[in-house]
Amino acid sequence: MIEKEILSDTDSIYNYMDNDMVVGYLEIRLVDGVLDIMNLFVNEENRHQGIATKLMNEMFEKEKYNRIMLEVNENNSNALKLYQKLGFKEISFRDRYYGDDTAIIMEKVK
Ligand SMILES: CC(C)(COP(=O)(O)OP(=O)(O)OC[C@H]1O[C@@H](n2cnc3c(N)ncnc32)[C@H](O)[C@@H]1OP(=O)(O)O)[C@@H](O)C(=O)NCCC(=O)NCCS
User: Fold this and answer.
1) CB within 6 Å of ligand 1 — which residues?
2) Smallest CA separation from ligand 1 atom 19, residue
């Protein structure tokens, strides 16, 4: 079950609940139609069950955005594959954004 928690005028979290425990969450910020993915996390033992996909799909359905932006480490293949599957496109890169690693900036337009 997914529950939305409002943190402020701009920030909220979608929590994926299992037996009253949060096993995954998606934190977003929405300003002037631009939605930023601040955090996406699923507990290690609950991965590869579609939880992150469900959190993202719930957010696509509920939020009123024009575009979604995110940054992902070039070496985070799990997250990259997930975002590509959900229709995000690479739009730019930021060298050494994560220590030695490059950040890939991705976007999805409504
Ligand atoms: C990235 C992350 C959020 C993905 O979470 P997840 O819940 O495992 O993601 P999903 O299950 O929705 O999708 C991942 C994979 O599971 C597969 N999957 C989905 N449902 C499935 C099911 N019922 N049975 C088997 N596999 C399934 C998906 O097809 C996908 O596989 P693929 O990568 O081989 O294509 C998770 O790995 C994580 O928390 N990582 C650490 C934090 C992080 O890197 N966050 C992103 C920062 S930008």
Assistant:
1) 40-42, 47-53, 72, 76, 78-79, 81-82
2) 50
pLDDT tens digit at each of 110 positions of the chain: 999 999 999 999 999 999 999 999 999 999 999 999 999 999 999 999 999 999 999 999 999 999 999 999 999 999 999 999 999 999 999 888 888 999 999 999 98
Domains along the chain with CATH numbers: 2-109 (3.40.630.30)
Angle at the Cα of 6 from the Cα atoms of 25 and 15, rounded to 5 degrees: 20
**Residues 6+ away with beta carbon under 8 Å from 77:** none
Overall pTM > 0.90? yes
Residue of minimum CA distance from atom 37 in ligand 1: 78
- Give the CA diameter of the chain: 41
Question: 39 CA to middle of ligand 1, Å?
Answer: 14
